[in-house]
Amino acid sequence: MKDDYILNINNLKVSIDDKQVLQGIDLSVKKGEVHAIMGPNGSGKSTLAYSLMGHPSYELDSGDIELDSESIVDLEPHEKAQKGLFLAFQYPMEIPGLQMESFLRSAVSSIKGSEETKDVFDFHRKVLKEMRYLGIDESFADRYVNDGFSGGEKKRAEVLQMLLLQPKLAVMDETDSGLDIDAIKVVAKGVNRLKEKGMSILIITHYQRILDYIHPDRVSVLSGGKILKTAGPELAKELEKTGYKDFVPKKSSLDVKF
After folding, report:
1. Checking DSSP bridges between strand 59-67 and strand 70-71, what pairing results, if any?
2. Cα(14)–Cα(223) distance, integer angstroms
3. CA within 20 to 30 Å of 95's CA: 1, 69, 105, 203, which one?
């Protein structure tokens, strides 16, 4: 049934600089599901992530995106966030001068309402509780957002945001990029906790290794701007062994990475 799905993408076509990258995406994610999107470089994976959030550089040619049975294609990014959509960036932005806890408080207030952060001391306790769960030192709260952070620290910061915001659907764009195994385990710990609470996750990755810790319910292959196959978690294992040779179009117009 339609109500069982948190995300429904129908015939989504998206262009960048007049070049069509997504060529008719059909994809559904069930409530409480971890759905992995895998594919080679230049397949359109990151384009899909940014298009879902409404990045202005990505032009929607046609199609529809429904979040919890409601079309969100005409909403601004902050409105999509308020509806429960969260995007974890591959390369999070640095914001010198803005402390992490201040940033988190502003984000939670904007998305969940000011009542959630009205008691400053109570919110501080919540932040520290989640930081301890992720094994993050308390000094992290006073540091500037992503300023001088390692790759692993940036990903921890995003997982911390998710734990506090508790979105309906988190889209994670190549979260494992540049991370060592210890950092991947921390990310997985936070994501798995949110899954236990019923959150849905759309995780975009090249490699199977993060899926050893965040276990997908379904896996889809995106190549040439289209979803070519969807199956169970065994598909990720298969791709790790065979690669994407069976899914690369013979004449692909996607010769650059998006």
Report:
1. antiparallel
2. 14
3. 203
